[in-house]
Design goal:
The chain is α/β, with parallel strands linked by helices. The chain has one domain: Rossmann fold, CATH 3.40.50. The chain is about 40% helix and about 30% strand. The model has no long low-confidence stretch (mean pLDDT about 90). Belongs to the ABC transporter superfamily. Ycf16 family.
């Protein structure tokens, strides 16, 4: 599904440019959930931004494809329409735009780009209620402006609400566990696990084993200096919890 080969990317231009991704190769097959772990500055979030087309990040070499299609030559809107979704580490506020209006507009924009009919208001409301119940999001929360006045846990639940409504082909979760208490962590994880399917892939970026206790990955990759330095099964995350990055990388981080 997602295939990255020898990817090199930087942030900034000219003398201010800084190389972040350095010859990264990674593959996430359909139906699998892969976790990415690594010290601060290893390139984890940069990878998420490069894959989704965020401004300010430039690709200098290599490739990234989704089901054989070149992601790097698409505009961010095209990538979203192809089914790429990013759950932000720090979700942004959108004053004046109610959650329901925002999510329905996003759904219909993607449907239009794919040549599909818009979702009707009754069908949208029904689906929003069903997803909201699973994530313990009440109707009043969905009427509020996007993320305005939301707690950290509410913002993260809303990110997963958007993902479940959009049903992407490939989801990237950038430190979704950041700032969550135990109950919110389980709620968010349950939502992610509900979207596991044979035709969907996921890349979960995290620092902590606790998230992977709830979202059991098929594979774990350790990043350092912009590339994968070690890969393994879920036990690799457990080893990181015991030994830290020093124990895995063999050098202080």
């Amino acid at each position: 599904m997602l295939k990255i080969e020898n990817l090199t990317a930087r942030i900034g231009e000219g003398d201010e440019a800084k190389s972040i991704i350095n010859g990264l190769t990674l593959e996430v097959p359909a139906g699998e959930v892969h976790a990415v772990m690594g010290p601060n500055g290893a390139g984890k979030s940069t990878l998420a931004y490069v894959l989704t087309g965020r401004d300010g990040y430039e690709v200098d070499g290599g490739s990234a494809t989704l089901s054989g299609e070149d992601l790097l030559n698409m505009d961010p809107e095209e990538r979203a329409a192809k089914g790429v979704f990013l759950s932000f580490q720090y979700p942004v506020e959108i004053p004046g735009v109610p959650v329901m209006t925002f999510v329905r507009a996003a759904m219909n924009a993607q449907r239009k780009a794919r040549g599909e009919e818009e979702i009707s208001a009754p069908d949208f409301i029904k689906k929003a209620r069903e997803v909201g119940e699973k994530l313990k999001i009440d109707a009043e929360m969905l009427k509020r402006p996007v993320n305005v006045g939301f707690s950290g846990g509410e913002k993260k639940r809303l990110e997963i609400f958007q993902m479940m409504m959009l049903e992407p082909r490939f989801a990237i979760l950038d430190e979704t566990d950041s700032g969550l208490d135990i109950d919110a962590l389980k709620t968010v994880s349950d939502g992610v696990n509900a979207l596991r399917s044979p035709d969907r892939g996921m890349l979960v970026i995290t620092h902590y084993q606790r998230l992977l206790d709830h979202i059991r990955p098929d594979k774990v990759h350790v990043f350092a200096k912009g590339r994968v330095v070690k890969s393994g099964g879920p036990e690799l995350a457990e080893q990181l919890e015991r030994e830290g990055y020093d124990g895995i990388l063999g050098e202080p981080v």
